[in-house]
Structures are given as C-alpha cells and as structure tokens.
Design brief:
With 94 residues, the chain is mainly alpha-helical. It contains 2 helices and 2 strands; from the N terminus they run ββαα. The protein is flat.
C-alpha cells in the first residue's frame, strides 16, 4: 500500500492518520532526486569508476530520451511477439 507522508527534520509523518499493527516496521521511501543533497562519493570509488558510471548514465539517458520512430517505419509484429503481448495482458488481468 502506498501512503503519503511528509519528512520533517528526521521524522516521517503520515498526511492522514493510519493505524499500524506493529510499533516498528520497515518501509520503502521514495525521495525525488532533486531533494537529495550532493552525497559526494560515499563508497570512496576511484575517479575512473565514477567517470565510467557517468558515461553509462549519459548513454542510458540518451536511449531513454530518444524519439520513437514513426509507426510506418517499425517492423511488422510477428506471431511470437503477439503471443508475448497477450501473455503480459493475461498477467496484468490476474
């Protein structure tokens, strides 16, 4: 279940009251990248590793942000791909 909360100087407060079964539990918190102060190099990685990671991130961003080709330039959809699409649809339905 996803619930909204506000971080306030080391405390996380739910925006709406929520009764929990236990006083202590593990949660996953998603923090927007722009809200995180520069962490520097917390694992003390060598500069060449950091440089390679930056190149990889740039390359992946270029792939993610590349425009999609027009529909008429896409290859035809094969029977195998149609089967996979149907399988994913079935999984989503169940």
């Amino acid at each position: 279940m996803q619930v909204e909360a506000i971080y306030d100087n080391g405390r996380v407060e739910f925006t709406h009251p929520l009764r929990l079964r236990h006083d202590r539990l593990r949660v996953l918190v998603e923090v927007p990248d722009e809200e995180i102060a520069d962490l520097g190099n917390p694992y003390n990685l060598p500069p060449e590793v950091l440089a390679r990671a930056a190149r990889m991130r740039t390359h992946l961003d270029e792939i993610r942000n590349a425009p999609l080709p027009p529909d008429d330039e896409l290859p035809p959809v094969s029977g195998k791909i149609l089967e996979r699409i149907e399988a994913f649809t079935l999984r989503e339905d169940h």
